Amino acid sequence: MKNFDFHAPTNTLFGKDQIQQLPKVLNQYGKTVLLAYGGGSIKRSGLYDKIYELIGEETTIVELSGIEPNPRLDTVIKGVKLCKEHQVDVILAVGGGSTIDCSKAVAAGVFHEGNPWDFITDKAVTIEKALPIVTILTIAATGSEMNGGAVITNEETKEKLGFHSRLVIPKVSILDPTYTFSVPTYQTMAGSADIFSHLIENYFNQTPDTMVQDGIAEGLMRTVLYYTPTALKEPTNYEARANLMWASSLALNGLTGNGKFGVWSCHPMEHELSAYYDITHGIGLAILTPRWMEHVLNDDTVERFALYGHRVFDLEVNDDLYITAKEAIKLTYDTFVDWGVPMTLPEVGIDESLLEEMAEQAVHHSNISTKAYVPLSVEDVLKIYTNSLVPMIF
Amino acid sequence: MKNFDFHAPTNTLFGKDQIQQLPKVLNQYGKTVLLAYGGGSIKRSGLYDKIYELIGEETTIVELSGIEPNPRLDTVIKGVKLCKEHQVDVILAVGGGSTIDCSKAVAAGVFHEGNPWDFITDKAVTIEKALPIVTILTIAATGSEMNGGAVITNEETKEKLGFHSRLVIPKVSILDPTYTFSVPTYQTMAGSADIFSHLIENYFNQTPDTMVQDGIAEGLMRTVLYYTPTALKEPTNYEARANLMWASSLALNGLTGNGKFGVWSCHPMEHELSAYYDITHGIGLAILTPRWMEHVLNDDTVERFALYGHRVFDLEVNDDLYITAKEAIKLTYDTFVDWGVPMTLPEVGIDESLLEEMAEQAVHHSNISTKAYVPLSVEDVLKIYTNSLVPMIF
């Protein structure tokens, strides 16, 4: 285990009707609120009206709406402008990862002279201060509700890049599983794939002796596998939605990744897909993950894949570890197929034309060629992309 | 899953030499520090000198030493007096659960008019303010380094009682596994038994659909089982000590217990043993746990015990769940025996003379007779105590 610095200070108010605490929560920070959200789903669900009912009278609400599924830099800049104009005290991010990520960039952007893209692209530019963020989560997916990470897309440069700061970790997150009842099938499975991928990325790592982190990841993976089919079949099943929601927060708040070195593999590859084609992040991850697994399976990694099969899919470990490992990879693929995920790139509108360019960018924008679980060259990434053009055969 | 409010804001600085950050950490809170510790072990290990070397020049250090293994109310009162006299800004608790628990009571006691026993015994007396606490952990056991709970013993009334407040959650905890290298065998196994018991207490619970919490608990239980024998055989094995240390914090910071109703079973029973006989808490828990398991195994609980056997001990689940459940209970007992725990009450100096009185007190001081996993009457507790007089036979 490597040294680490763990800090997940978000106060999570979990469960039905926790929104009743919203006035008290926001009051700690001030009376002018930036209400950040995406499209009309929070209006259709009644959440938007509920917020106004609870805080509308005593609070000045400024709205930043229309935040994109892959939030854009120009929306961040618009939010920063609003916060400065109206002297906003606190950001209330209502939505999923996109809305929360955008809010984080706004929160930090308010105190940054110049373009927020600076602190996203330049590690030398440090975030010194940020507005407090409170979130109301409406989809279980990114875990952004309990960490300091955010990913922003620059449409001009076609770049989709992340930044991280402890100052933008949400102060309070209201996690009411009933708000995810109306999440459509496609987004539910994309969300589950995203949670699962965060766990996979942290689990397949070369650092030895991280049994605490791995045991937590295994438990959360089993949870996602167990409850996703129920959530897809019965969207209003509270227990399924609750377990998926809580798993989303814990999958990426440091618990499963702290104390490990190296960088992730599938996320950098997927970020190019959604930067170029604006596809749903979780779907891109689901498509890439089993191909990546197949590509990196070798004598060094087979033991971990067999353990994954044993702990997560309850497989008996065969004397020939490759048998268990391959079965685990097949089950991973089959899981996504069973959920209904479109499991090839053409099904999400991606053909072979830009694969090479994206492979180059994936390696250029990350350290996967040197620090991934199994280092991936441009050729490796291209192979994984190419293998994603057609269904897998086992 | 029940509604819950999760908040584990402790910033954990984990790993070798993290103590170098101590000056910066303490500086946030002020220049007068109450250094709280137990006996001479931190002097023998060099930790005491290291602290003075790092902060001795710039900081005024007031010492509260001699904190007992089961910290006493009069020591708390002494600490409060010191803090008031010297206008202490921050408490640096160096040690294990006893030192940290005592520090929590001192931290809150400073701002409480009257005897600290008030807020420990009377739920109506709320803690309004507390001094900030920074900890340097020297034994993996109670998890006190990352939560707001504390247990204090009143020698006069023979009561050992807990209190809880978010205001006394440590701000920063330095977790350097090398500080646990010198923990003696007896305390190492007692610590592991304590961690294991926290997980057991949360795991055996009637609330349905808590797979997230249970998956985490299962992973942490496997970690304790896997690394404790190594830590006992090779006390300076960093990886074993690291995993046990991190497991201790996560076992009791809310992750495995939040979202569940009811109260614990073995802790209330053990608290009487250590209140009356001053035995080591973890050892008392190890003795009681398998007897409690045997006592509460029935048609309602057998499925959970079988799952426990499957997930934690890798048992195949038999069609007759009782077979798996009983094997799991046996393995739990055998585990403690293998560690070297004295597994009967007489071995720790407890005979039958006060069992009835303690059984009455255990029920009197807790809600185990109504809200435990399987409610336990005075007769039940007495049975479990009595069964603990002799070795278990399977």
TrEMBL record, chains A, B:
Q: Which superkingdom, per the lineage?
A: Bacteria
InterPro entries recorded: ADH_Fe/GldA, ADH_Fe_C, ADH_Fe_CS, BDH-like
Q: Where is the Alcohol dehydrogenase iron-type/glycerol dehydrogenase GldA domain?
A: 9-177
Q: Which GO terms of the molecular function aspect are on file? A: alcohol dehydrogenase (NADP+) activity; butanol dehydrogenase (NAD+) activity; metal ion binding; methylglyoxal reductase (NADPH) (acetol producing) activity
Pfam families listed in its UniProt record = ADH_Fe_C, Fe-ADH
CDD domains given in the database record: BDH (cd08187)
Residues covered by the Fe-containing alcohol dehydrogenase-like C-terminal domain: 188-388
> What keywords appear on the UniProt entry?
Oxidoreductase
Q: A single GO CC term, please?
A: cytosol
Instruction: Name it.
Output: Butanol dehydrogenase
Question: Which species is this record about?
Answer: Vagococcus teuberi
Source lineage = Bacteria, Bacillati, Bacillota, Bacilli, Lactobacillales
